[in-house]
Each structure stands twice: as C-alpha cells, then as structure tokens.
Amino acid sequence: MSVQVLVLKESAAGEKRVAATPETVKKLAAAGAQVAVESGAGLGAGITDQAYLDAGAQLAAADSSGSADLVLCVQPPPAEAIGTLRQGATLVGVLHPQADQARAAALRSRGIRAFPLERLPRTTRAQAMDVLSSQAGMAGYKAVLIAAQLAPRFFPMLTTAAGTIRPSKVLIVGAGVAGLQAIATARRLGAQVEGFDVRPETREQIESLGGKFLDLGVSAAGEGGYARQLTDDERAEQQRRLADHLRGIDVVVCTAAVPGRPAPKIVTAAMVAGMKPGSVIVDLAAETGGNCELTRPGETVEEGGVVIDGPLNLASMGAVHASEMYARNVYNFVALLLKDGVLSFDWNDELVAKTAWPEPAPEPATAAG
Ligand code: NAD
C-alpha cells in the first residue's frame, strides 16, 4: 500500500509556515504517496484548503495523525501531539529532539523515526534540502527591513532641495547565510554596508555583495564550514576594536551563531552606551540568547537612545516564500526516503543516516569467511 503522508497544521504561537505546498503535494503524489493536509494548515502562508485539494491532497481533521506513516511539519509538534502519532511513524521537520525532554520521551515512547532537518549534513548534495539556509535567507532579509523601519533615518544617500542626506552606515555582524542576505538587502536599500565574521573566507563573499569587510583582527574558522568558539584573548581583541568602530555606525544587524551553543555575546552594554542616540540594533540571534548583551528575545527595548530589537521567528514573517522554500527542501529530503511509493531507509546514504534521530544502530558485522 502506498505511503500515507500527513502535513500538520503548525500549532506554535505565531508560526505561519507550512511544510508542504500544492507544488510539493503534486510531487509527493507523483512519487506514489497519498497526501492528506490538516485543514487550514496553509492559511498563514496564503494557501487555501481548496488549493491543496486541487493539487490532489485530501483534507484531514486536526487530530487525524494516527494513521499517517510520514508526518511533515515545520516546528516540533507538542509532546501530546507526538503521543497521537502512529507507533513507528516517520516525522520530518525542524525537531530539535534534545531541546525538550518531554518531546524526546514522546518520540522514543512512540518509536518515532525522526528526521530533524537541522541535523542534515551541509554537503553540496544536501543544499536543495537545507532548511537552515533557506529560512535564514528570509530571516536576514526581514531583519534589515525591521531595522530600516525602526531607524529614524533614510538608508540611501539622497540629494534633495533641502540638501544632501548622507547614507546610513549599516554593520552586519556574522556573515553566514542570514548575514549575507542582510548585506545584500541593506545594499539594495542604498546603505553603506560593512560586514564582519570570524571566518576569513567571508571577506570575499561580503565584498562580492558590495559590502566592506570589517577586519577586527580575529579569525576563527572551525570544522565543517562553521565558526569555532573564540578564545578569551581573541574575544577581548575583537571587542576592543568593535567598540571603537560602533561609535560611527547607525544600524547593526546581528546574525552570529555557533551551532549547538548559545549565541556569542559580541555587542556589550558598554559598546551600546558608546553608540549615538538614534542608532538601532536588530538582533536576529535573539532566538538563541542574542549577540547583544541588552537584547531581550521577542522585545524591543531602548537604552540611552539606542533601540535594540530581538525579533523571533523572522522566517515566519515571510511565510509565503519561506514555506515555498521549506516545502521544496522537505520534498527533496523525503524523496530520499521514498522508493516506489513506500518508505525505505538507505542507511548507507549519509544524508539519511546522519539526519536520523535516534541515530540508526550500526549494522551487525557479518562473519568473514
Ligand atoms: P550560523 O548561522 O551557524 O552562523 C552565522 C555566522 O556567524 C557564521 O558565518 C559564523 O562564522 C558567524 N560567527 C560565529 N561566531 C562569530 C563571532 N564571534 N563573531 C562574528 N561572527 C561569528 O551559520 P550559517 O549561516 O548557517 O552557515 C555557516 C557556513 O556554512 C557558511 O559559510 C555557509 O556558506 C556554510 N554553508 C554551507 C552549505 C553547503 O555547502 N551545503 C550550506 C549552508 C551553509
């Protein structure tokens, strides 16, 4: 019998994204799956139930997950909802299984084969499945728009009858996927943009987007293309130079992260005190504690005339395109698990094996000779 796929209606507060679109429903059906979508699942992303029906899906009531073999979601379902999944079902989404004990216990007790997409190895082959990248792109874009909205100034240089307005100076802290999108967006708005990162290879990437690389004299390239944690000396040097530089900056967008750790604290309270009144900091790292010491996740605060915003779940603010990208990422990953319309796990495929949680048990060694 063909695999039964269920697309969940997200239940987290403020979450507007959805894990499948009519486009990916059609692709799943073409791969032999029977797709059901929880009624209203797409509304936050502008997708009606009818659009899913037209794409060949069925509609499901909100508590109908009990018969699905493969459940697709964006954020982790609550532990109680996991408890209603079919024993041994497969769950694909951004699941952070270890971040919540009740969730991990629920996944284990139902024998759920979970594929938390944040665990996907970031290899070239995985790029089309990389939800961290696709969603970070939207977050970086929105962070700059929020900054432009909060800043009491124009971003571009303007020559007006009332004289010339100088362009805003924008600094992007961290030039990963979100940071590079932030640089590109701030440039499109006409700002003078600088970026910095501890990975030296970002210099070329920042410059290729029309930004200037801010050299703070610290390099911390780590494994797998990610940053490593800085030593105390490196951090002190970075902070001394940054404090000086921030005095002349109008807008800071923070995006620095180290995987699996709280966000590095880069902009201290003392640095904020040295910034000009009317400056703005948008801290996209608020989700993991923030890059600025004064950031309060989910809030906008003001300190000495400097506005500090700590927005959460920025990808959801652009739910239409974020869902379009997320759903394609999910489909591309799920395609690895579907063989002739049934689920099958190729543990020799590192994308499948390394993403799975719990990790698959190693194959028993076969007796030689
Ligand atoms: P991330 O969200 O973990 O981190 C964001 C950025 O913060 C990184 O560039 C990191 O170097 C930087 N950072 C960390 N500590 C810092 C500090 N103290 N000061 C300044 N900056 C600091 O990373 P990400 O955006 O998800 O991706 C990081 C890298 O992985 C990028 O180079 C990206 O191109 C690469 N990547 C590769 C693939 C692929 O090959 N398939 C896919 C996605 C990402």
TrEMBL record:
Domain Alanine dehydrogenase/pyridine nucleotide transhydrogenase NAD(H)-binding: from-to ranges: 148-310
Entry-linked Pfam families: AlaDh_PNT_C, AlaDh_PNT_N
Entry keyword set: NAD, NADP, Nucleotide-binding, Translocase
NADP in keyword set: yes
InterPro entries, A to Z: Ala_DH/PNT_CS2, AlaDH/PNT_N, AlaDH/PNT_NAD(H)-bd, NAD(P)-bd_dom_sf
Family annotation (SMART domains): AlaDh_PNT_C (SM01002), AlaDh_PNT_N (SM01003)
Function field: The transhydrogenation between NADH and NADP is coupled to respiration and ATP hydrolysis and functions as a proton pump across the membrane.
Family: Belongs to the AlaDH/PNT family.
Protein name, UniProt field: proton-translocating NAD(P)(+) transhydrogenase
Organism field: Pseudoxanthomonas kaohsiungensis
